[in-house]
Amino acid sequence: MIEESKQTEQTENINANVAEENNNSARMSANLETELNSDVATTDGNSVRETNWAADAAQWEEMEAEIAALEQQVAQLKTQLEERTSQYMRIAADFDNFRKRSQKEKEELDQQVKCNTLSSLLPVVDNFERAQAQIKPQTDAERNIHKSYQSIYKQMVTALKSLGVSAMRPKGQEFNPNLHEAAIQEPTNEYPEGTVIDELIPGYFLGERVLRHAVVKVAAPFEHMVPSEESRSESPES
C-alpha cells in the first residue's frame, strides 16, 4: 500500500510538472505571438507612413508643377500686356499726329480759300482808290456821287480789316523780296540805296501771311546808273 501511495504521488508530481511545462509553453507561445503581432503592426505602421510620405511628395511635386505653369502663364500675360500697351501707345501717337496734321491741313486750306477770295476783291479796292485820286467833283451832284463811292469804299475796307487784312505801307522801308516786287529803280539822294520810295500797287497782309506783294519803286544811287544813249546824245560833248 505504501508503495502504491508513493507511486501515485510520483505520478501526480510528474503530471504536475507536465502541466506546468505545458503552461510555460503556452505562455511562451502567447508572448511570441504577441511580439510577432507587435512587429507586424509596427511594420504595417511604417509602411503606411512611408506610403503617406510618398503621396505627400507626389502632391508637392504636382503642386510645384502647377505653380510653375501658372508663373509661366503670368509671365506670358505680362509680355502680352506690355506688347498691347506699346501697340496702343503707338496707335494713339499716330492718331494724334494724324489729327494734328489733318487740322493743320484744314486750316491751311481754309486760309488758302480765304486768301483767294480776298485777293479777288483787292482790285475793286484799287479801283476805288484810283477813282478817289482822279475824280475832282465840281457840282453838288458830283460831290454826292463821290460821297456815295467813298462810303462804299470805307464799308469794304472795314469788312477787310475785320477779316484780318491790313495794308503793308512799305514806303521808307528797306526793300524785301519776300514782301515787295521791284518795278522801277530810281536814282535819288533822298533815300539810301535799296529803300522803297513809292508804292505803285498796294500790298496787303492777311494776319502774318502775305496776301499780295506790293509793287514798289526802289531807290538807286546816281553813281551806279549808266547814262542812256539819249542822255549821252543830249550832253554838251555831243
From TrEMBL:
The record's section on CDD domains has: GrpE (cd00446)
Q: Where is this region: Disordered?
A: 1-48
Please list the residue ranges that the record marks as compositionally biased, kind Low complexity: 12-26
Q: Which domain of life is it from?
A: Bacteria
Q: Where is the composition biased (Polar residues)?
A: 27-48
Which segments of the protein form a coiled coil according to its record?
60-87
Keyword terms of this UniProt record: Chaperone, Coiled coil, Cytoplasm, Stress response
| SUPFAM superfamilies membership | Coiled-coil domain of nucleotide exchange factor GrpE, Head domain of nucleotide exchange factor GrpE
Where is it located? Cytoplasm
Matching Pfam families, A to Z? GrpE (PF01025)
Instruction: Read off the NCBIfam families from this record.
Output: PRK14143.1 (NF010741)
Per UniProt, subunit arrangement is:
Homodimer.
- Give the protein family: Belongs to the GrpE family.
- What is known about what this protein does? Participates actively in the response to hyperosmotic and heat shock by preventing the aggregation of stress-denatured proteins, in association with DnaK and GrpE. It is the nucleotide exchange factor for DnaK and may function as a thermosensor. Unfolded proteins bind initially to DnaJ; upon interaction with the DnaJ-bound protein, DnaK hydrolyzes its bound ATP, resulting in the formation of a stable complex. GrpE releases ADP from DnaK; ATP binding to DnaK triggers the release of the substrate protein, thus completing the reaction cycle.
Protein's name according to its UniProt entry: Protein GrpE
Q: Whose protein is this, by species? A: Floridaenema aerugineum BLCC-F46
